[in-house]
């Protein structure tokens, strides 16, 4: 039994993915959940000294008032994600974790996220970036000291932010810091403020969303000087995972992909936020660049994301792939992917937490390129093919078990 204690700090704590991750974590702690879907439970990791499930405690930031238990109940009622029996077994721990959730910031999150947030969160509108940073950092540090944690891993699971013009953001930490300390308004979005606060508190950071977060030169520099590990961006759970597996097949067989059309429909809260054209643009960009990166040429591709309320957390993606083979003959592959967004994402979130915790514990800071296979737009690597990304993870396993 491990004596370490590790904190998980979710930004967007009461959202679908974070809540499912917490339900799953507590079920694993109680040994009432199977290990299916967890990459870190593959035989590959048998000799890797990853944290045990029992050592984790959860807290986080939110901008809505709902609570883990209510959020989980909603996932059961609307989307039938897990059984009511499982939920009642984990309920007391979910309620304990609720006490660790604090008010987040709405700085530069866009009007759609402001609209879904609660009155208490809206009261913070207008706070300066310096005040927000201090508050966020102190919430994380308080959580660490209250629970006597060895480490805290901060995971961004907040709603996707609209893209901001970041062209005038300075590239060095000292210049950005000076602006953040002296200005009334912030030149960077909330996701980046959360990453900065995490780094200042000495925490590893995982960005599971398409928002920019730690992927700014000045923030990358801060992570290096604070010697913390970070990774992102945008968890690769469904349609893009398939693209990163299938596109290399077309490339390896010298088949010319002419067009790739993907229509996505789903009805959870992420879908409501992504229904806003500005927030949707960030997600579509994250999904769209992969094909030309893998195939090496431009092709007509279309990604649509539509909110269909009745589907709840269940996403359907239809892909229509038109390609040309020998003697100019045109052919088609069509596929349908139906999956629960949160059930696909939650185990990967738990894997990323364990892998980041070990990286940090081993004193290996900076961007974690070896986690590329978990992300749609992986930081620190230009390798878009899933199989090659998974090789990076295998190499890391070899390094840390030598
Ligand atoms: N399969 C997947 O579900 C998947 C895959 C890849 C990426 N993602 C990304 O993960 C994120 C979470 O997805 P979800 O389905 O849980 O969404 P969700 O809408 O259910 O949850 C997001 C939560 O973030 C909270 N939030 C928004 N802005 C915040 C802020 N500034 N500070 C603190 N909390 C804030 C919201 O109140 C909400 O509870 C989204 O950005 C999504 O695009 C999800």
What this model shows, in words?
The protein is of the alpha/beta class and 402 residues long. The protein is 44% helix and 18% strand. Helix 9 (217-226) links the parallel strand 5 and strand 6 (229-232). The chain starts with 5 loop residues before the first strand and ends with a helix. The model has no long low-confidence stretch (mean pLDDT 95). The structure holds nicotinamide-adenine-dinucleotide. Nicotinamide-adenine-dinucleotide binds next to helix 1, strand 2, helix 4, helix 11 and helix 14.
Write a concise keyword list for the protein shown above:
single chain; 402 residues; alpha/beta; Rossmann fold; Dihydrodipicolinate Reductase, domain 2; seven-stranded parallel sheet; four-stranded mixed sheet; 15 helices; 11 strands; binds nicotinamide-adenine-dinucleotide
């Amino acid at each position: 039994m491990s004596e370490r204690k590790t904190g998980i700090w979710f930004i967007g704590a009461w959202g679908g993915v974070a809540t499912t991750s917490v339900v799953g974590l507590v079920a694993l702690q109680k040994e009432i959940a199977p290990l299916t879907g967890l990459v870190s439970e593959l035989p590959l990791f048998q000799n890797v000294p990853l944290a045990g499930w029992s050592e984790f405690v959860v807290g986080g930031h939110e901008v809505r008032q709902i609570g883990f238990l209510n959020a989980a109940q909603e996932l059961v009622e609307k989307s039938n994600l897990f059984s009511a029996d499982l939920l009642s077994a984990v309920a007391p721990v979910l309620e304990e974790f609720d006490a660790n959730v604090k008010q987040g910031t709405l700085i530069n999150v866009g009007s759609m996220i402001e609209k879904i947030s609660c009155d208490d969160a809206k009261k913070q509108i207008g706070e300066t970036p310096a005040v927000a940073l201090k508050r966020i950092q102190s919430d994380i540090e308080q959580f660490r000291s209250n629970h006597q944690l060895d480490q805290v891993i901060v995971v961004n699971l907040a709603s996707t932010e609209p893209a901001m013009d970041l062209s005038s953001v300075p590239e060095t930490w000292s210049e950005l810091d000076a602006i953040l300390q002296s200005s009334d308004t912030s030149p960077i979005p909330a996701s980046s403020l959360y990453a900065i606060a995490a780094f200042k508190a000495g925490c590893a950071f995982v960005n599971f969303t398409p928002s920019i977060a730690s992927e700014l030169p000045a923030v990358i520099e801060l992570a290096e000087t604070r010697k913390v590990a970070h990774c992102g961006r945008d968890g690769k759970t469904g349609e893009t995972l398939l693209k990163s597996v299938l596109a290399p097949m077309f490339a390896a067989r010298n088949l010319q992909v002419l067009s790739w059309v993907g229509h996505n429909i789903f009805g959870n809260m992420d879908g409501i936020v992504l229904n806003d054209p500005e927030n949707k643009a960030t997600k579509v960009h994250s999904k769209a660049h992969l094909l030309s990166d893998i195939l090496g040429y431009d092709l007509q591709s279309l990604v649509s994301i539509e909110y269909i309320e009745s589907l709840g957390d269940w996403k359907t993606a239809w892909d229509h792939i038109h390609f040309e083979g020998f003697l100019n003959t045109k052919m088609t592959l069509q596929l349908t992917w139906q999956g629960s967004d949160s059930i696909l994402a939650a185990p990967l979130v738990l894997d990323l937490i364990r892998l980041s915790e070990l990286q940090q514990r081993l004193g290996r800071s900076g961007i974690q390129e070896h986690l590329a296979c978990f992300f749609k737009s992986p930081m620190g690597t230009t390798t878009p093919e899933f199989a090659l990304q998974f090789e990076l993870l295998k190499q890391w396993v070899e390094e840390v078990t030598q």
